[in-house]
Amino acid sequence: xxxxxxxxxxxxxxxxxxxxxxxxxxxxxxxxxxxxxxxxxxxxxxxxxxxxxxxxxxxxxxxxxxxxxxxxxxxxxxxxxxxxxxxxxxxxxxxxxxxxxxxxxxxxxxxxxxxxxxxxxxxxxxxxxxxxxxxxxxxxxxxxxxxxxxxxxxxxxxxxxxxxxxxxxxxxxxxxxxxxxxxxxxxxxxxxxxxxxxxxxxxxxxxxxxxxxxxxxxxxxxxxxxxxxxxxxxxxxxxxxxxxxxxxxxxxxxxxxxxxxx
Amino acid sequence: xxxxxxxxxxxxxxxxxxxxxxxxxxxxxxxxxxxxxxxxxxxxxxxxxxxxxxxxxxxxxxxxxxxxxxxxxxxxxxxxxxxxxxxxxxxxxxxxxxxxxxxxxxxxxxxxxxxxxxxxxxxxxxxxxxxxxxxxxxxxxxxxxxxxxxxxxxxxxxxxxxxxxxxxxxxxxxxxxxxxxxxxxxxxxxxxxxxxxxxxxxxxxxxxxxxxxxxxxxxxxxxxxxxxxxxxxxxxxxxxxxxxxxxx
Lengths: 262, 248
Ligand SMILES: Nc1ncnc2c1ncn2[C@@H]1O[C@H](COP(=O)(O)OP(=O)(O)O)[C@@H](O)[C@H]1O
Ligand SMILES: [Mg+2]
Fold this sequence. Notes:
The complex is a heterodimer of chains A (262) and B (248).
Chain A: E1 2-11, E2 14-24, E3 29-33, H1 40-47, E4 55-60, H2 69-75, E5 76-79, H3 91-101, H4 106-119, H5 135-147, E6 153-157, H6 165-182, E7 185-190, H7 193-199, E8 202-207, E9 210-215, H8 217-224, H9 229-237, H10 248-259
Helix pairs in contact in A: 3-4, 4-5, 5-6, 8-9
Chain B: H1 2-17, H2 19-46, H3 52-74, H4 76-82, H5 84-89, H6 95-124, H7 133-158, H8 162-178, H9 191-199, H10 201-214, H11 221-244
Helix pairs in contact in B: 1-6, 2-3, 2-6, 3-6, 3-7, 3-10, 6-7, 6-11, 7-10, 7-11, 10-11
The complex binds adenosine-5'-diphosphate (ADP) and magnesium ion (MG).
């Protein structure tokens, strides 16, 4: 479903993604696990036509997303690391807008919006402005929206960042349910070990722009002769992942972007 | 087509829902109208130039439409900051459609604003020379709205932060307004100022409005319309091109 060969992205003089190769099978849940700044978001942006690769090849569902952007965009859904909802519109209107942009036929649209909003426990709040939603609700809405046009692949970039453990659990339960029911391929990034361990069929460990190892959680543990994914990660990268470091570099980057025009 | 419609609708919804903002955005032109219209009226009359309120009402309409349309385009800055822009950038529709929907939505809002301020002008005592001129004037209201919504959208595709926004407000939009003949006649100006005012797109919009509404032309109907049409096409193309190039 996703085929990536020798993908590289260089910003000015800094190489954010270094010559990575991997593939994701149809129906699989595949996780990129790595600390902040590892290059996860940059990789997703290249896969989803938002950023042009410096070099390397990508095949999404058989074609190069940069060359056939429209087909590629129709075939995937994406939940960005940062919010992308229209907070001045209601939950329903956000879904509707997405449905129209993604050519979901009128009749199917209403039905599917209801199904998804019910599944993600937002149906009761469909008429409320998104700006009144909690962080967890916004996330759920974004994910529901991502599934609306029945994409073949759903990209989730750190979807649980900043959520409490209960919301995180709930969110993954829903995602797994749809993955099983609709056979949607899921490509997710996270820096939470337990999530990758619990949710993903296979995991790619990413550090400093490179993929250090790929495999199931069991394979990674076996390869490093450790008994936890955490141990495997430590053995492979020489560092441990701590949740507290969450997005501090991201925040800094965003802050810098606001002050110095790029 | 669906994309154009839904993006257009979004602009309209945002406008209708921000009632406080509607009042505020009409307050400024109303203030110009009252403070300057009544304040400069006597001086203007003494100089033998006629009724200043009559003269500046079309200018204030042009001003309202200018600010409203430029702002709508620049609102892209907020969509970028709050993230919604990304949703439209990855959608499987031509970015041209997204851009057209946004721009036409912004222009529609600006036209409504122009209509509202016309009502304010009429209440304040403004009288067109013919009543039929009122519907006719909306040809120019619409042209001004499209030209500057597209200009705003071009700017919105490029600037990324508040500084850039403020800079452009002060050094582009305000001069466009002040050098357009909205507040004073463009005849008998110093030579340099004449050149500058003739290079200002809004001058042709204001002239069209004033010509149609009170029958006083600096240029001509055909010239005003032709220049605005060319600029609309040019700015729309530029904005579409800039928008299509956005990467994240
Ligand atoms: N537009 C950009 N310009 C320059 N550097 C960037 C840009 N985007 C990301 N980076 C850098 O690339 C590295 C990887 O970033 P990112 O892909 O966001 O990591 P992750 O998502 O794994 O946290 C970081 O060091 C980041 O600062
Ligand atoms: Mg990231």
